[in-house]
Design a protein that fits this description.
The chain is α+β, with helices and mostly antiparallel strands and 83 residues long. The chain is 24% helix and 19% strand. The protein has four helices and four strands; from the N terminus they run H-H-E-E-E-E-H-H. A two-stranded antiparallel sheet has the order 1-2. A two-stranded antiparallel sheet has the order 3-4.
Length: 83
């Protein structure tokens, strides 16, 4: 991992390892979101993925999340920049 990468690089240039390292455990990526059809605004709901452990704000089955949740979407640097 590059030293102090989070200070100098835009998120779109992070490696997968660096991207995972900046997770602060807020759990927002596990909340169900809605996009307004008219304005394209993103709205957070109070509904979360069934794997979210609300006590720790961590995935309860991180290693298997892709198969355990069929509509799981990977939050990537590119997608985060778009949103």
């Amino acid at each position: 991992m590059r030293k102090n990468f989070w200070k100098h690089l835009p998120i779109t240039e992070l490696t997968n390892e660096e991207w995972e390292a900046i997770c602060d455990g807020c759990g927002k990526c596990c909340l169900i979101k809605l996009i307004d059809d008219v304005t394209d605004e993103l709205h957070f709901t109070s509904v979360s993925c069934r794997l979210l452990d609300c006590d720790t704000c961590r995935c309860g089955d991180y290693e298997n999340r892709k198969t355990a949740v069929p509509d799981w979407v990977a939050l990537s640097p590119r997608l985060a920049a778009e949103l």
